[in-house]
Amino acid sequence: MITLALALTLIAGDTIPVTSVPPESAAPPAAGAPEYGTTVAPAPAAAVLSTPFVAPPVAPGLGDTVPAADTARARRPRAKAIEYSDWYTTRLEIHKAASWATLPLFIGQYLTGETLITKGTDSPEWVKRVHPALATGVLALFATNTVTGAWNLWESRDDPNGRTWRTAHAVLMLASDAGFAYVGQLSKNAKQSGTTRDQHRSAALASAGVALVSYVMMLKPFRPD
What are the CB-based long-range contacts (under 8 Å, 24+) for 185-194? Predict the structure, then answer.
């Protein structure tokens, strides 16, 4: 009987509720805080604010394609505007007129010079007078072309279009100028010496030929610009 009473006492002890007591050393709970041993329900999950991810710019690799327009803009320098003065056009017109006027003078020089070489002192008087007059005309026109051509060549120095062609034209004309200056020196003794007359004739034809080549190269379709 004693054993049965002890067993019932132990079973009854299992059903007695146990209240947890906070330890004496623990600090009192703060105001508004739950009491010790009380079950606290978890707070609702707060909404998470997310910032959209922006990928940083990546430099193009070897296999990437760069737009052609951007590449051309980066590599090609901006074209420089070339401005010509009104005097440039005026000098050019004078230069052209003087060049065309020189051609009949060349023909007259050749014909009268051949007559002087063939007939010598027996040449007609008008031939003796016309030949040096034509030479003076050629000298004046060449001086005009030299000044206007050199001036325009300097003003167009920054224009890349046809620059090499213009420079070659100028060099040939300067060579022709030098040739005719030599012709003039030979003319002083041409009357007394047959050898000097032949040199005078050869130098005149060579100088006129160089000038004609320089003229033609500036005409269409030979002129590149």
Answer: 187/132, 187/135
The three state secondary structure string of the chain is CHHHHHHHHHHHHHCCCCCCCCCCCCCCCCCCCCCCCCCCCCCCCCCCCCCCCCCCCCCCCCCCCCCHHHHHHHHCCCCCCCCCCHHHHHHHHHHHHHHHHHHHHHHHHHHHHHHHHHHHHHCCHHHHHHHHHHHHHHHHHHHHHHHHHHHHHHHCCCCCCCHHHHHHHHHHHHHHHHHHHHHHHHCCCCCCCHHHHHHHHHHHHHHHHHHHHHHHCCCCCCCCC
pLDDT band at 190 (very low <50, low <70, confident <90, very high): confident
User: How far is 49 from 119, CA to CA, in rounded Å?
Assistant: 116
Verdict on whether the full-model pTM lies above 0.70: no
CB 20 within 8 A of CB 37: yes
**What is the overall mean pLDDT for the chain?**
78
The tokens 């509720």 sit on which residue? 17
Given this model, what pLDDT does residue 70 score? 53
